[in-house]
Design a protein that fits this description.
Layout: H1 3-42, H2 49-62, H3 69-94, E1 111-113, E2 116-118, E3 124-128, H4 135-147, E4 152-154, H5 172-185, E5 188-192, H6 196-202, E6 208-211, H7 219-226, E7 232-235, H8 242-254, E8 260-264, H9 282-289, E9 294-297, H10 298-302, H11 308-317, E10 322-326, H12 344-363
Parallel strand pairs: 3-4, 3-10, 4-5, 5-6, 6-7, 7-8, 8-9, 9-10
Antiparallel strand pairs: 1-2
The structure holds ligand ISJ.
Length: 368
Amino acid sequence: MNKMETLNNLRIDVEQLDNEILSLLSKRGELVKKIGLTKKELNVNIFDPSRELELLSKIDNNNPGPYNIESLKRIFKEIFAASKFLQYNSELKENKPFLFSRDYKSEDTIVNVNGQNIGDGIPRFIIGPCAVESFEQVQKVAAEMSKRGLNLLRGGAFKPRTSPYDFQGLGIDGLKILSSVSKEYDMGVITEIMSTDQLEEALEYIDVIQVGARNMQNFSLLKAVGQTNTPVLLKRGLSATIEEFKLAAEYILAEGNTNVILCERGIRTYETATRNTLDISAVPILKQETHLPVVVDVTHSTGRKDLLIPTAKAALAIGADGIMAEVHPNPAIALSDSKQQMNFDEFNHFMDAIETFSNKAVLEPVNS
Ligand SMILES: C=C(O[C@@H]1C=C(C(=O)O)C=C[C@H]1O)C(=O)O
């Protein structure tokens, strides 16, 4: 046998052993999963450091060589870590699909807000000023929306501003304005609540609680809104992955509130041409992987009025259930986001363009 053949034969033996190690690891994995389920019944922790130390010391005592004990410890610590992962995941994945998932519920969730079924296949429009500034300001916007048959009114009363010196919103007075205007025009009110202590009082005035991007992982707020029956519009965090976004929704669903609407509002990237980068592919991913309605906030994702029409068209074309956009009677003097809110002419032009587009899309479906 020449040297090359010897090498090949040795490698064949190594592969044989690798297969045996794999099958032993697989058997170990199955045992570890059973241990995990037993621990769950006993209500004890998955991670057991003293058990791991005991196993490492046995490995040290029984080590026949040639590997040194430090190498073996690293290998076995990896095995322990993979085993704990199996135990945590067998609990989550095998016994209980995530409540947001299509595995848990295959049909689309439809959230009814003031007679509008968000998620039923018809595009919905959530329109209003960035911040509530006065009764007249909100009333003017509502009147303009009403002319177009729109009845989902947004407006911020509690404003999470980047600078503490910027306008922080009118608070409860802002909610009262939203509520009385919405009664006058028969509209549903969507507004952001920033903390649990605002929640109870706010519920008297609003129809949809918005959890803003900066609060997407405020877990106590998510749990608190989950304990209500009021629909929740959950915005994607500034730098949140889709996985983190879905898990934030899970916090709300796990408390029993099934009326959750997801809102893609752009994410932070290196790109500076837009305020945020609209992650348009998040829409079909969320539609595939969750049963929840998905809306796109074209104002915050772009921060540019010239991009509102194309991004809204793209959002609807790719499967969004609705569009959120900001409108102000006089954006130049708005107390927040003055550059990105539409005035009434721009708003009507926007709606004309989107209505034509979505009717056309319905009449002439694009064959893929
Ligand atoms: C399997 C167990 O759970 C964990 C994983 C271990 C392992 O892979 O051997 C050991 C201790 C625990 O941290 C166990 O407790 O026995």
